[in-house]
Specification:
This protein has 15 helices and 14 strands. By secondary structure, it is an alpha/beta fold.
C-alpha cells in the first residue's frame, strides 16, 4: 500500500512516499523557505535526485510542485494519482476534539478550520494540504494525525491555567502541547536505546518551531507549548514566553491593534526579531563573524532551554537522558554546546568531539563519566504518520 505523508510546517513542507507495511521509502523530499526568497524544492528517489531554487509564495504552490514531481514522466515514481491509497497529514492543533488519528471527512475539516485561531501558522497550511491532496488524489483516503495527541497524558495540575474555571469548562482553554508526533517517535527510540522502560527523559525538538517535553515512563507529563504553539522556547519567528503585560502595553500605550500584536509575536519575533535572520545557519555564521545581535540571540536561546531542563528535571524527580532532535537539534553543535555548558550540577557532561560529528543515527554525545545521557535521535515524523495512518486503514 502506497501512503503519501505530507508534513506542512510554518515555512516548509516535508514529504515522503512509503510502501506500507514494509516501511519502505519510495521517495522523499522537502520544500523549504515558503514565502521567503530563494525557495527550494528537494526530491529524492533511489535513482534520481532533483533540487530546484524557485519562488514558492505559499503552501499550495509547493504541494502542487511535489505532486508534479511524483508523476513526472522522467523522475516520477507513480504513473497516476490512483496509485496513492492514502495521504497522511500532520495537523498541529486538535483542540479538545481529537486525541486519536482519524479519517478525514467534511466534519473533520470543519473542526480543523475552527482551530485556525489556535495555530495560525500551522493549521491553515495543514488544511490547505488536505484540500490540495483531495483534489490531486481524489480516490485516496485522507488521514489526520494530530500533534496534540501525544500530550493527552499531561496531568491536570500541569495542563490547567490559573484563570477562572469557566474558561476551562466552557471554552476549553488549557495546555494542549504540540510537536507530539516528533516527541512520541524520539521518545520510543530513546527508551529502546536506553533499554529502560521506567525512564525520565526530556525531549528537545528544535526547528523553526521549538518545544520540550518531560517524559516519564514513555508518557508526556509536561510540555513547553500550551494553548497555542507560541510560548515556551524562543523560535524562528515566534517569541516564546513573554510577560503578558507587554501585550496590554503594546495595545493600550503604543497603539497597536490586537491583529498587529499577534503579527509581531507570531511572525516578527524570536530569532528573526533579535537578529533579522530566521534561519539558524545564517545566525550561527553571522555570530562567528562577530555579529553581536546573533551572538546574544544564541545565548538567549540556549538560556531558555537550560531553564526548562532544570524545571523538568525537578518535576521528573531525576533525569536519565536529554534528547536533541529535529533540524536544529540534530545539526547545530553550536547550540547543543551552549545548552549543555555548565550543567554539571545535573550530571550533564558534553563530549565536544562527539558533538561536532554529523551522523544521521541515534548516538550519545556525552562523556563516559556523564551521569545523564545526552542523545541525538533523528526524528522521523513522516514514518510515525505513515504508521499511524496504516493502523487506521487496517
Amino acid at each position: 500500500m502506497n501512503i503519501l505523508v505530507i508534513n506542512s510546517g510554518s515555512s516548509s513542507i516535508k514529504y515522503q512516499l512509503f510502501q506500507m507495511p514494509e516501511k519502505k521509502v519510495i521517495c522523499k523530499g522537502m520544500v523549504e523557505r515558503i514565502g521567503i526568497e530563494n525557495g527550494k524544492i528537494i526530491y529524492k528517489t533511489e535513482k534520481h535526485s532533483h533540487e530546484e531554487i524557485c519562488d514558492i509564495p505559499d503552501h499550495k504552490v509547493g504541494l502542487n510542485k511535489i505532486a508534479a514531481l511524483l508523476m513526472d514522466h522522467k523522475v516520477g515514481v507513480i504513473h497516476s494519482a490512483d496509485e496513492i491509497k492514502s495521504v497522511g497529514h500532520r495537523v498541529v492543533h486538535g483542540g479538545n476534539d481529537f486525541s486519536d488519528t482519524v479519517v478525514i471527512d467534511e466534519q473533520i475539516k470543519s473542526k480543523i478550520k475552527e482551530l485556525f485561531g489556535l495555530a495560525p501558522l500551522h493549521n491553515p497550511p495543514n488544511y490547505i494540504g488536505i484540500e490540495v491532496a483531495e483534489s490531486i488524489f481524489p480516490n485516496a483516503k485522507q488521514i489526520a494525525v494530530f500533534d496534540t495527541a501525544f500530550h493527552q497524558t499531561i496531568p491536570e495540575v500541569a495542563y490547567r491555567y490559573a484563570i477562572p474555571n469557566k474558561f476551562l469548562d466552557e471554552n476549553k482553554i488549557r495546555l494542549y502541547g504540540f510537536h507530539g508526533t516528533s516527541h512520541k517517535y524520539v521518545t520510543e527510540k530513546a527508551i529502546s536505546y536506553l533499554a529502560k522502560e521506567q525512564s525520565k527523559i526530556i525531549t528537545i525538538h528544535l526547528g523553526n518551531g521549538c518545544s520540550m517535553t518531560a517524559v516519564k515512563n514513555g508518557k508526556s507529563i509536561d510540555h513547553t507549548l500550551g494553548f497555542g504553539p507560541m510560548n515556551g522556547l524562543i523560535m524562528g519567528t515566534r517569541s516564546g514566553d513573554i510577560d503578558q503585560s507587554i501585550i496590554f502595553y503594546m495595545i493600550n500605550e503604543l497603539g497597536y491593534s490586537v491583529k498587529e500584536v499577534n503579527q509581531v509575536l507570531q511572525k516578527e519575533s524570536g530569532m528573526f526579531g533579535l537578529t533579522g535572520f530566521s534561519d539558524l545557519r545564517e545566525i550561527e555564521a553571522e555570530a562567528e563573524n562577530g555579529n553581536q545581535d546573533c551572538q546574544m540571540a544564541l545565548q538567549m536561546n540556549a538560556y531558555r532551554i537550560k531553564k526548562y531542563i532544570g524545571s523538568y528535571a525537578a518535576i521528573l524527580n531525576g533525569l536519565d537522558a536529554i534528547v536533541f532532535t529535529a533540524g536544529i537539534g540534530e545539526n547545530s553543535d553550536v547550540l547543543r554546546n551552549l545548552v549543555c555548558k555548565n550543567m554539571d550540577f545535573l550530571g550533564l557532561e558534553l563530549d565536544q568531539t562527539l558533538n561536532a560529528k554529523r551522523e544521521k543515527v541515534i548516538r550519545e554525545i556525552n562523556t563516559t563519566t556523564s551521569k545523564v545521557k545526552i542523545l541525538i535521535v533523528p526524528t522521523d515524523e513522516e514514518l510515525e504518520i505513515a504508521q499511524q495512518s496504516y493502523e487506521v486503514l487496517k
